[in-house]
């Protein structure tokens, strides 16, 4: 079965979805994202795509990793972020900023550098 939807409906279902437990914080994120996302983007001076490992590494001016994405799944629109970076962000941002908004921040940072890729979900993955 196929459905015909409007462009606005497609945009609505294509955006990263909030879970039921954090709907009430959406307005808070809209107020702070214009400060949080540029803060992380400003930390990044270069990035490297490692196709053999399906990884994208964002680096600072000293080539130290700032953010590591394990991969982007085009089929599902999912990005996976390294868990070690996630743990560091918990230390930097006051609670509950990162715990509630972290997945949206990392999706917005990813979309800043890759605006043509559609992110509908973001997850943390621990790399062994």
Summarize the structure in short.
The protein has 128 residues and is of the alpha+beta class.
Kindly describe this structure.
- The structure is a single chain.
- The chain has one domain.
- It is of the alpha+beta class and 128 residues long.
- The protein has a 5-stranded mixed beta sheet.
- The chain contains 4 helices and 5 strands.
- It is globular, with a radius of gyration of 15 Å.
- 41% of the residues lie in helices and 23% in strands.
- The relative contact order is 0.18.
- Strand 1 and strand 2 (55-59) form a beta hairpin.
- The mean pLDDT is 76.
- Helix 2 packs across helix 4.
- The longest helix has 18 residues, at 26-43.
What's the SSE blueprint?
Layout: H1 7-14, H2 26-43, E1 46-50, E2 55-59, E3 65-73, E4 78-82, H3 83-92, H4 97-113, E5 121-125
Parallel strand pairs: 4-5
Antiparallel strand pairs: 1-2, 2-3, 3-4
Keywords:
41% helix; 128 residues; globular; five-stranded mixed beta sheet; alpha+beta; 23% strand
The count of domains is 1
* Shape summary: globular
Distance from first to last alpha carbon: 41 Å
Please state the structural category: alpha+beta
**Stretches with pLDDT under 50, minimum 5 residues:** none
Largest sheet: 5 strands, mixed
The number of helical segments is 4
Q: Name the average pLDDT.
A: 76
Q: Helical proportion?
A: 40-55%
